[in-house]
Design goal:
Elements (H helix, E strand, L loop, with lengths): L33 E5 L6 E5 L4 E5 L2 E5 L3 E5 L4
Length: 77
């Protein structure tokens, strides 16, 4: 039989390191816009829903999407 000794618990030394941060690029493409519609009068304004901060590309031209609901005036520029 082994004899067990009871005594003071040993204190573990804890070391706190500085927090580290990293930046990871977003490689997931946003979903395609939905609910697209053209202005019935001139067909120069397209509207729909898309992920905020994405871009709608129409005939090779990029239109920024700043909110979930967006509108792009094709008659400008």
């Amino acid at each position: 039989m082994k004899r067990l000794e009871v005594g003071k618990p040993k204190m573990r030394q804890t070391t706190f390191l500085d927090a580290a941060t990293t930046t990871v690029p977003d490689t997931t493409a946003p979903a395609a816009p939905t609910g697209l519609a053209a202005d019935a009068g001139t067909n120069t304004v397209i509207s729909g829903k898309a992920e905020p901060n994405s871009k709608a590309v129409i005939d090779g031209k990029e239109y920024p999407v700043n909110a979930a609901d967006f509108s792009a005036d094709l008659g400008k520029n």
